[in-house]
Amino acid sequence: MRIEIPEKKKLVFETLIPIRWGDMDAMGHLNNGTYFRYLETARIDWIRSIGIEPTPGGEGMVIVNAFCNFYRQLEYPGNVLLKMYVSDPGRTTFESWGTMAREEAPDVICAAGGATTIWVDFPKQKALPLPDWLRTLVSE
Asked: Residue 76 and residue 98: Cα distance in Å, rounded?
């Protein structure tokens, strides 16, 4: 099943991630699991850029699902331009999306993925309403 990234979304973060030789699989292209690692890296770097640090004793974000659509192979050497978007804030969640392209061909999407992100109280392991400042940030 392919999940499409929506047209209506807000760009919140961009980063370059170098493709490492060890990220390749036996077929000579980026291992499928590495795409998820790249999405995670961008999501964590964005979260930190807005002032949220991991606080196991407090509140923060976790993902409740993740997906990735593979369109073109990524291969070593090179850099991946990962653009992160957000959309659809709900009471406790919002959607995060990422597109991956080679740095030298930024308009050719090689992979795209996303995750439902939820705001939680970590000690209680309970969902909480999105803080107002975060709701504003992830709204169009």
From this structure: 20
**What's the predicted TM-score (pTM) here?**
0.92
Identity at 77, one-letter amino acid code: P
How many Cβ atoms from other residues are within 10 Å of residue 100's Cβ?
Answer: 24
Fold of 10-138: Thiol Ester Dehydrase; Chain A (3.10.129)
Instruction: Please give the full DSSP string across the chain, using - where no structure is assigned.
Output: -PPPPPSS-EEEEEEEEEPPGGGB-TTSSB-HHHHHHHHHHHHHHHHHHTT----TTSEEEEEEEEEEEE-S---SSSEEEEEEEEE---SSEEEEEEEEEETT-TTSEEEEEEEEEEEEETTTTEE-PPPHHHHHHH--
Residue 27: both structure tokens together: 């077929």
pLDDT in tens, 36-66: 999 999 999 999 999 988 888 999 999 999 9
At 20, the amino acid letter reads R
Q: Please check whether residue 17 is in contact with residue 82, taking contact to mean a CB–CB distance below 8 angstroms.
A: yes
Domain boundaries, the chain: 10-138
Cβ density class 48-86: b for 16+ within 10 Å, e for less: eeeebeeeeeeebbeeeeeebbbeeebeeebebbbbbbb
